[in-house]
Design brief:
The protein is of the alpha+beta class and about 150 residues long. It has a domain of about 100 residues: Roll (Ubiquitin-like (UB roll)), CATH 3.10.20.810. About 15% of the residues lie in helices and about 30% in strands. The strands form 3 sheets. It has a 4-stranded mixed β-sheet, with helices on one face. The chain has a two-stranded antiparallel sheet with strand order 3-4. A two-stranded antiparallel ribbon has the order 7-8. The protein is globular and about 45 Å long. About 20% of the residues are buried.
């Protein structure tokens, strides 16, 4: 059985954790976290959110479609930049309230800042716990966001 949204109804804990039915759990705002990782390198690319409709569209077209919380609209990744994410595989966690999108990142990068990944900095704790800083993990930008988006 499926619901109007195309997904299975949420059953008991055993069904959710061990069953074969996809029954994603959306939060109070109707969203589910979706982490995109590179299918070749397993590098984390970005974290975004999906609602029922964006997840349905993603499954239909085979490319990542997210819900933009700031703009309150659908966001077909790459529609503006051309940097699309082709879905290779979608995984869900044990209680089906988070997704991992294994993607082929097509184009110069996943991040609107012009980098390959949105996760281009790591948190570094100073010696003896003196301060916390961010340290770059990527050597630079893979594209010019001003040229792609018009401004940044």
């Amino acid at each position: 059985m499926t619901l109007d949204n195309g997904f299975a109804p949420r059953g008991g804990k055993g069904e959710i954790e061990e069953g074969a039915d996809f029954a994603p759990k959306f939060d109070a705002d109707g969203l589910i976290a979706a982490m995109a990782i590179d299918a070749t390198t397993n590098e984390p690319l970005m974290l975004a959110y999906m609602n029922v409709e964006s997840l349905r569209r993603t499954l239909e077209i085979g490319e990542a479609v997210y819900w933009s919380r700031s703009r309150q609209e659908f966001w077909h990744k790459g529609a503006t930049s051309g940097h699309t994410q082709r879905i290779v595989e979608i995984r869900t966690d044990c209680d089906q309230d988070a997704l991992v999108l294994v993607v082929e990142q097509i184009g110069a990068g996943a991040c609107h800042t012009g980098r390959n990944s949105c996760f281009y900095r790591k948190v570094v704790v100073g010696k003896d716990g003196a301060g916390v800083k961010l340290e770059q993990t990527e050597s630079g930008k893979s594209f010019d966001p001003a040229a792609v988006y018009g401004k940044h």
